[in-house]
Input
Amino acid sequence: MIQLFNVSKIYHGDVPALEGITMRITKGEFVFITGKSGAGKTTLLRLIFRAELPTKGSVLVNNFNIARLQRHSIPFLRRNIGVVFQDFKLLPQKTVFENVAFALEVLGTPKREMNQRIMHVLQYLGLKNKRDMFPLRLSGGEQQRVAIARAIINNPPILLADEPTGNLDPEISLEIMHVFEDLHRQGSTVVVATHDVDLIKKIRKKVFCLDKGKLIDVIAEEEIAST
Ligand SMILES: Nc1ncnc2c1ncn2[C@@H]1O[C@H](COP(=O)(O)OP(=O)(O)OP(=O)(O)O)[C@@H](O)[C@H]1O
Ligand SMILES: [Mg+2]
Output
């Protein structure tokens, strides 16, 4: 589903943000990307949703080399990928409902059905009674759940999350991770970048470890369970 072949990314100068990365994430897998600050986690995610192009090597999503996608095909790639960020990136002047509605592809869907879909997602994330509130009046965990609602409203098969719990306390972080686990159980491919080692130990999924732009280790789920 997601494959990188010998991928390097150099923003400028000669220090690569990523160097010689080859990895594969299969359909329906849940994986962590970890590593210290500056290791290249965000860059790796940005390459997958084509916010950046690799300097070298190729990134394949659903067997398409995304660097070769024509401009008009980029929305099709993005439709397959939901993204969640550390700072939520919600629209402050829109309500919870409106934030999610804004992301919904219209595609001629009747308004009533759209409303039903949004309410279904809000209910799933425990946000039904927050629908008319503005993001800044919500707790961090609630804001992140709104961001997740927005990311999954179009049922993308792939969900990417960049330090999704970086602004949350440990208990709420675990709750958010349980949401990702649940989405994974429902069939989504989930990729979470985090430097939170405690969280990784609790959730126990495959881990790709980056260090200074290089993939230095891949730890299988079973290995984490035994540590
Ligand atoms: N837009 C950019 N322009 C130039 N350099 C960048 C850019 N984005 C990242 N870098 C550099 O690339 C390297 C990897 O950064 P990246 O943000 O991918 O790391 P990270 O693992 O996500 O770090 P953090 O844990 O702090 O979020 C760093 O040296 C960073 O300074
Ligand atoms: Mg980052």
Residues 11, 17, 35, 37-43, 195 surround adenosine-5'-triphosphate (ligand 1) (CB under 6 Å).
